[in-house]
Amino acid sequence: ERRRVQARLDRSLSGARRALKGLRFISRATGSTEATALWGAVEERFDALSRDGLLARDDFGDCIGMVDSKEFAVGIFDALARRRRQNLQRVTKEELRDFWLQISDQSFDARLQIFFDMVDTNVDGRITREEVQELIVLSASANKLSKLKEQAEEYALLIMEELDPEGLGYIELWQLEALLLQRDAYMSYSRPLSSGSGSAAQWSQDIGDGGAQEKPATTAAPGRGRWQRWSPRRAAGRARVAAEENWRRAWVLALWVAAMAALFAWRFAQYRRSVAFEVMGYCLPTAKGAAETLKLNMALVLLPVCRITLTRLRSSWARFLVPLDDCIAFHKVIAMAIAAGICLHAGNHLACDFPRLIASSPGEYRPLAGFFGEERPTYRSLLSGVVGVTGVVMVVLMAVSFTLAARPLRRAPTRTRLPSPLGHLAGFNAFWYSHHLLVVVYLLLLVHGWFIFLVTKWYQRTTWMYIAVPFALHVGERTLRALRSKAYAAKILKVCLLPGNVLTITMSKPYGFRYRSGQYVFLQCPTISPFEWHPFSITSAPGDDYISVHIQTRGDWTQELKHIFVENYFSPCLPSRASFGELGMPEQKSPPRLLVDGPYGAPAQDFRNYDVLLLVGLGIGATPFISILRDLLNNIKLADELMDLSMETSRSEDSSNTFSVSTASSNKRRAYRTSRAHFYWVTREPGSFEWFKSVMDEVAEMDKKGVIELHNYLTSVYEERDARTTLLSMVQALNHAKNGIDIVSGTRGQDTFCKT
């Protein structure tokens, strides 16, 4: 009774006010006006689901909008039925309306009573451990957290220990209310346990609750509100930020456009003064000007895909002037300019100047006889010559390559399924192999440019001058990559199959293989295909004596790789996480050979240049940041070892040793500017936390100075204010406060629930 009196809280406190807005049974805010509007949709679903004017108990969740939480909705239905002292299996529209008004009530006390009634199945005003366990199972099922269902009994005991210190075996409504209203208190006293690991994976409730906050209604007109938000100072600030972010892109694009314009104008003016202009008109200089820009773009389009060159440029002064992170985007822009140039060049030749040449009079044609022969050519003879055949073949090959490189077709196997036999003309493989047709295009381009019309001197045939260096550079890189990949044949040390169809491959580091955190490699498995290379981010640190990658099996190549390992090397008795190493591998079989090509530069590799890091990863896209975290951990370990060694040597009288150790320590500090790192990982499935669990545990154990903060966000569950997540949020805080272990990921941090 004394605890009951002490538990009467002042609901004006900020934490209590936030809790009073929680415990919603409907995802959206439910004021009186909006509840009436939402009832219209519920009424329509009732008419569709009801039979003979009655709605079945099992259809209650579909009717009120809890489509993915039918078991939880049935629990609400039973609680509301018990209030009527009835055991209902079907309800009328009037009864459903009464149920709807109760669950959409804005009063926290009303919602709390419904929540309590869901647990109090025997209607005695008391909740036992078994009843709490049953509600935890319902909440875990609604949020698709199977791991929590297995540990529901343990977490129910945790709730009872917290709310029933006297050991009476039950809790009452006021105790449940105290638990919910003291939410912020439980969150705050759970944080010190994570501060030892650098506040690893703190609750971050300000961000986690962002998805659940309600936006206040506004009566201002949209245009007026937008105008009120605008100000000259704010506009100037945005312009300054845009200039700082985009000035590299701007000057590169401006230089490229200026070069094309200059080449077009120069060639246009040259042919404007030629004798052929009198016959072919402006079609000829337009086609020739477009051809000059085509030569430039056919040379430039190779440079953004020269990966070795770009990786070296990332370590030079060029990274401050050239946007190396946008190389693929620039490659696509140049490709679109090539397509436009082809249309302008070929279109003017085929539809304009060729017909005018064929229709010219003998007197008009006489000055051009030295270029086309004594007899006036026909349309067929122009197309059947070397220039015509090479031009038509190039256009066809480039049309095929460009079409299959389009995003919808390139990703067709995972996005859309095309009917047979068109399915073979889409997907990454079709894009990859069709792009190699461009090798033939470049060879034909050299021939086409050498036998060009209206040119007699060799130095006027400039096509080879444009593409010689880029083409030689690209071919040289491809040759070097082929030779290097054979030298970088990696030995597989360990393979794990993690939840979410993620394959973790640990390989031996080839001799001379050096990389930076954040970079990626290309892998080839000759058993699957001797030609296909696929990029994957490196998840190990440069200081590790191995290379590891995490591969999510989405495409056909990764599916086949998973099939090879699962069928031949994984033991079928391991249900959740299959793995094999040198000891568990069957002796009569050897794993497939993997060839490694790389490493190649990526934006994340420059993390050492910054004092504070903000790393944001979505799903498997967090892989480059795992390598960075490992690298930071290795740096922390090395710094601790150097500090210990420095303290030991400082006790001795050997000043030279002391000087060398302090010099090494200072050099390491200069190489690493990073003093703080914040890692935000947003994932959809709770099983994803198994992917990098060991790294996060190591961070929590080793990072005593709080250099790294881990923030995990699980988006497959409902927001913290939802009734389906309320109890889980409290279990999360209590378990972390007591054991320092997260209930979802199993790591020593905490995760945030946020529905997207």
Automatic annotation (TrEMBL):
Membrane topology annotation: Multi-pass membrane protein
A single GO molecular function term of this UniProt record: peroxidase activity
Biased composition (Low complexity): 194-205
Keywords carried by this UniProt record: Calcium, FAD, Flavoprotein, Membrane, Metal-binding, NADP, Oxidoreductase, Peroxidase, Transmembrane, Transmembrane helix
Region (Disordered): 193-226
InterPro entries: Cyt_b245_heavy_chain, EF-hand-dom_pair, EF_hand_dom, FAD-bd_8, FAD-bd_FR_type, Fe3_Rdtase_TM_dom, Fe_red_NAD-bd_6, FNR_nucleotide-bd
Gene3D superfamilies tied to this protein: EF-hand (1.10.238.10), Nucleotide-binding domain of ferredoxin-NADP reductase (FNR) module (3.40.50.80), Translation factors (2.40.30.10)
Every FAD-binding FR-type domain range: 485-606
Main localization (coarse): membrane
Domain of life: Eukaryota
Gene Ontology annotations for the cellular component aspect, listed alphabetically: plasma membrane
Pfam family, one: NAD_binding_6
Domain EF-hand as annotated: residue spans: 107-142
Subcellular location: Membrane
Membrane-spanning segments: 250-269, 382-409, 430-452, 612-633
PANTHER family, sorted: NADPH OXIDASE, OS08G0453700 PROTEIN
Similarity comment: Belongs to the RBOH (TC 5.B.1.3) family.
Record's protein name: FAD-binding FR-type domain-containing protein
Organismal lineage: Eukaryota, Viridiplantae, Streptophyta, Embryophyta, Tracheophyta
